[in-house]
Write a structure and sequence with these properties.
Helices cover 47% and strands 26% of the residues. By secondary structure, the chain is α+β, with helices and mostly antiparallel strands. It has a domain at 291-376: Immunoglobulin-like (Sandwich), CATH 2.60.40. The strands form four sheets. It has a five-stranded antiparallel beta sheet, with no helix packed on it. Strands 11-12-18-14-15 form a five-stranded antiparallel beta sheet, with no helix packed on it. α2 packs across α11 (444-451).
């Protein structure tokens, strides 16, 4: 028996108990009042039970409006965890070196305090990751359980059920917005005092040959052959880098990595403290995130028409060439060449940052052609990238300077412990108010629902 069925039966039980109490031939007003209350509560619980799909839809709807993105949130958590682990390991290594040269008083003094701050921040991020996984993976079960607890007669567990529903709804919508909240609060902060003017923010869009958003990709920056940073674009083909993660403020070489394709170019600085640029993939037509068509050098794109589940690409080939179709291995795909099914192709499999690709290669005769791709997919696999924020490269921390180490630990503690806890406290306050409306403390909505 699932939770919704149980909630419905409990609502019926409350209704029957209420009618029975009202029908008792006893001249006690309290008994009659209890019977009416049970009837009202049962009706409200029943309405709530049948509103389960509406609740799930509202979570998705408000998430779209507010820009909820669990994939970006997961990448943010992974990036911050990587940074904290790097700082923690570096501080531990320095402490070990200082102990070896008999400078234990430094380790037991300021260094141990900074390590404690970084360790607390790391614990907070890991705990947040666990809570996020529970909320994201089990939201439907938690809402169903909350409705079942809400429907128990005599309000025995109504407060718990209302609170569980409210927390699941609010955290499902609001928790992935934590990075935006922290960026908003810390937008005037940064590592300027440590890194000088070498750290900027960046907003980079990645588009295909038809100026359409491409999707996930990996970008690396180099200067004199040395790696400066490694970041990944999200499913919308956007990379946002704040000053905490950092982006170089000077001209440098970049390499875009898309499966087995690499594109090299030079970024020229045009703004003082921020980058706002668009990068183009000249030989690629995006179909969906992690799905695209690669065109060879003998072929030109005359036009692209996008449908709901299909893309028509008008091509002109000066000589016999080929085009390649990149899709994830579980995708359903049909390719037509000039309205005829293209069944002759070679197939390769590739693994790129934990994404399993099927690459189909098709021969393209000379002349004008229309390639139609019908694509049906169920999910987009996120990239498992070992991110390397520029801040780690730009800080150039002089660990003989105690104030620099204290500054690093303090920044990590404020941004990754204090601010996340404040944001979670805000979400909890909203959840408790929503729980009141659902009948946890105040029965206003219940009475309104019944009277309607």
């Amino acid at each position: 028996m699932d939770f919704l069925t149980l909630a419905f039966y409990l609502s019926v039980l409350s209704y029957c108990l209420g009618l029975a109490l009202k029908a008792l031939p006893l001249p006690f007003f309290a008994v009659k009042k209890l019977g009416r209350a049970l009837v009202n509560e049962s009706i409200f619980s029943c309405v709530l039970t049948f509103s389960y799909q509406i609740i799930v839809y509202l979570i998705e709807y408000f998430g779209i409006i507010l820009g909820t993105n669990w994939g970006f949130y997961a990448l943010w958590l992974a990036e911050k965890t990587s940074i904290l682990l790097t700082i923690f390991a570096a501080l531990k290594g320095i402490g070990l070196i200082l102990s070896k040269i008999r400078l234990n008083f430094l380790v037991q003094g300021f260094l141990s305090q900074v390590i404690g701050l970084v360790s607390t921040s790391l614990t907070t991020i890991i705990a947040t990751s666990i809570v996020s996984s529970i909320i994201h993976a089990g939201s439907s079960i938690l809402i169903g359980l909350g409705i079942a607890l809400h429907a128990v007669p005599f309000k025995l567990t109504r407060n718990v059920g209302s609170t569980l529903i409210a927390i699941t709804v609010v955290f499902s919508i609001g928790l992935p917005l934590m990075p935006q909240f922290i960026n908003l609060v810390t937008s005037t902060m940064g590592y300027t005092l440590i890194a000088g003017n070498n750290v900027c923010s960046a907003y980079i869009e990645l588009v295909d040959a038809s100026n359409n958003s491409f999707g996930q990709a990996v970008i690396e920056g180099y200067s004199s052959g040395e790696l400066l940073y490694r970041y990944s674009f999200n499913e919308k083909g956007v990379l946002e880098v704040n000053k905490y993660s950092g982006f170089p403020c000077f001209d440098h070489e970049v390499v875009l990595n898309v499966v087995d394709l690499k594109y090299a170019s030079t970024l020229r600085r045009t703004q003082e403290n921020a980058w706002n640029i668009t990068l183009y993939l000249p030989d690629v037509i995006a179909l969906a995130p992690n799905r695209f068509v690669l065109i060879d050098s003998n072929t030109y794109v005359n036009g692209v028409v996008r449908g709901e589940k299909s893309v028509n690409i008008s091509l002109f080939s000066t000589d016999q060439g080929e085009f390649k179709l990149y899709v994830e291995k579980d995708d359903d795909v049909v390719v037509l060449l000039d309205n005829v099914p293209a069944e002759n192709y070679t197939l390769e499999t590739k693994n790129w940052y934990s994404v399993n690709y099927h690459v189909r290669s098709y021969i393209l005769p000379p002349g004008e052609h229309v390639v139609t791709v019908y694509l049906n997919y169920y999910a987009t696999t996120p990239l498992d990238v070992d991110l390397y924020p520029y801040a780690l490269r730009a800080l150039n921390v002089d660990f003989t300077s105690p104030e620099v180490i204290i500054m690093l630990g303090t920044y990590a503690f404020i941004e990754l412990t204090v601010l996340p806890l404040i944001y979670i406290a805000i979400l909890l306050a909203i959840s408790l108010n929503l729980a009141r409306l659902l009948g946890g403390v105040s029965s206003s909505i219940a009475k309104l629902t019944v009277n309607l």
